[in-house]
Specification:
Layout lengths: L2 E2 L2 H9 L8 E6 L14 H10 L4 E3 L5 E3 L2 E8 L2 E6 L13 H14 L14 E8 L2 E6 L6 H5 L14 H4 L11 E7 L3 E6 L12 E6 L3 H10 L4 E3 L6 H5 L4 E16 L9 E2 L10 H9 L3 H8 L4 E3 L22 H10 L7 E7 L6 H14 L3 E7 L1 H9 L5 E7 L6 H8 L17 H11 L4 H18 L2 E14 L2 E3 L12 E3 L1
Parallel strand pairs: 2-11, 2-12, 16-17, 16-18
Antiparallel strand pairs: 1-9, 3-4, 5-6, 6-8, 7-8, 9-10, 10-11, 12-19, 13-18, 13-19, 14-16, 15-19, 20-21
């Protein structure tokens, strides 16, 4: 069933002649948007779609550097007070004026939107204690302590009209209240099929080149490639690794590549003595032992996974941010492939003959996710772990993983804030109502939590980076997660179209231009 934004918008688009949308763009996406609520779920497809419709006070550019958006400028009044000067003459898609009251209502709404979220936005606003509308174009934000990453965090929070401050996610998923200030307006959403947007002619920035954008969902990689080769779509994301060279050699296409910020990682049940899919001879969960987690990490040949399965489109990982990012630690090297050392560690941990493990992963969310999972399972089996691999569609897999129905899983985490805390917090901070919402393995270390918390409150960049490195070292030494590799991002466009690849992997038609 197609979901329309509003009856008026549905009627207006229905009666427009086809010639009005003279410059249409059709984009083939690799994964579905699961909600039209931009504050509901921290996951790549949702965040990317939201950027087309909504703005933050600040936005991130193609390399995740902070840029002015609805706020033109800002000052830190003292260690816990920030003041933002807002952009004048900005209109929401419904024609209403954007003011400071909308900022206050949007930030206040985040906890409401977190209801039943697999991974909520609350960590990005939990330091905020007050939002004051000083005047229509001035907002003052107070935090419970020094919050040096406030701008990074606010770049993740979509601004809606104050009238939508109490609109539940269920209503937005029906198309009600999907109103932003972004370059495109919401028209319709057919889940797992398509999303249609129309150009916002009142956008505060340069107008988009496209009158209408249709996003089509191609979870099947071969179908996505076939669509661009046949001309059914103008642009696709996430080229299957096996097809990249072929598309690069196709004269009618232009291939774009960008080093990505998404870490592929393994998460394991670390707090339950009995776990549903990890059992030693005594029936207990071997994954609670650090030596076992280290053995599993040593069993992995990350270079081979990248070279043979990803066709080189990735970078082996030993920490949560890629080289060149703030907080990257040169001292943390990628774990060397050493199956003999892994076997010894297993024996020392009390498992000379291994143990039983079922490894769960998605099979349609990340490039080659099913193949990577099978390879990981084979590496585990080679050191004596009796490993079965089960892969599931993302629509089923992630909700079950969040419900902790599994013992050992694979996931992907993007460096949303452009520095380590954006991954360390959601994945590794001790799970609670406002922390560790993506910590499906329930890793917990008080020293890690304290170090990360201190880093979040340290305004000096040098000191904060040192603390972030220390927090990363603690978590990597514990193997709170096992890093695998960073994905590279790819796009293919028809000749005559250009797109600047983004390190966040977002596909944003606003930046697609005709040459």
């Amino acid at each position: 069933m197609k979901i329309l934004a509003t009856a008026a918008l549905a009627l207006s688009t229905a009666i427009l002649p086809a010639s009005v949308f003279a410059r249409d763009l059709t984009v083939g996406l690799s994964a579905s948007t699961t909600s039209m609520d931009p504050q509901f779920y921290v996951v790549g497809p949702n965040s990317a779609m939201a950027r087309n419709i909504f703005d933050g006070l600040v936005n991130q550019d193609a390399r995740q550097q902070i840029q002015p958006a609805l706020a033109e400028s800002w000052d830190r009044i003292d260690d816990t007070t920030w003041e933002f000067k807002l952009r004048a003459n900005v209109k929401f898609h419904d024609g209403s004026d954007f003011t400071a009251e909308d900022v206050a209502a949007s930030i206040k709404r985040v906890p409401l939107a977190a209801t039943n979220s697999p991974s909520s936005f609350t960590p990005y606003v939990k330091a905020i204690t007050a939002v004051e509308a000083v005047d229509p174009l001035t907002v003052r934000i107070k935090t419970e302590g020094p919050t040096p990453l406030l701008l990074n965090n606010l770049s993740r929070i979509a601004i809606l009209p104050a009238e939508q401050g109490e609109t539940p996610t269920e209503e937005m998923n029906k198309g009600n209240g999907v109103i932003g200030t972004g370059p495109f307006k919401f028209v319709s959403w057919t889940p797992d099929d398509n999303i249609v947007l129309a150009r916002n002619d009142d956008y505060w920035g340069e107008k988009a080149a496209w009158d209408k954008v249709t996003f089509r969902i191609f979870k099947n990689s071969s179908a996505r490639v076939a669509a661009i080769l046949s001309g059914d779509v103008d642009l696709i994301e996430n080229i299957p690794t096996a097809d990249t060279r072929r598309l690069e050699g196709t004269p009618s296409l232009n291939v774009v590549k960008a080093t990505g910020n998404r870490l592929m990682y393994l998460h394991m049940d670390q707090d339950r003595e009995e776990s549903p899919f990890a059992k030693g001879p005594d029936g207990r969960n071997p994954l609670v032992k650090k030596e076992v987690r280290r053995a599993l990490s040593l069993s992995l040949n990350r270079e081979a996974i990248v070279d043979r399965i990803m066709d080189g489109q990735g970078t082996p990982a030993g920490q949560v941010v890629p080289e060149g990012y703030f907080g990257y630690d040169d001292a943390l090297q990628v774990e060397a492939y050493d199956p003999e050392a892994a076997k010894k560690l297993l024996a020392d941990a009390g498992y000379p003959n291994g143990f039983d493990l079922t490894f769960h992963a998605s099979n349609d969310r990340y490039p080659n996710d099913s193949k990577v999972a099978q390879a990981v399972g084979q590496f585990f089996s080679r050191i004596g772990v009796n490993t079965a691999v089960e892969t599931l569609p993302g629509s089923v897999y992630f909700s079950r993983a969040s419900a902790r129905e599994f013992s050992f899983i694979m996931g992907g985490a993007a460096v949303e804030t452009g520095e380590p805390s954006g991954v360390l917090g959601p994945l590794l901070e001790t799970y609670g109502p406002n922390a560790g919402q993506g910590n499906r393995g329930r890793y917990s270390n008080p020293e890690f939590d304290a170090t990360l918390d201190k880093a979040r409150k340290t305004l000096d960049d040098g000191e904060r980076e040192t603390l972030l490195k220390k927090a990363t070292e603690i978590a990597m030494d514990d193997l709170g997660i096992i890093p695998l590799f960073f994905l590279n991002y790819t796009w293919a466009a028809k000749q005559g179209l250009s797109y600047e690849g983004r390190s966040d992997g977002y596909t944003l038609p606003y930046y697609v231009t005709a040459q």
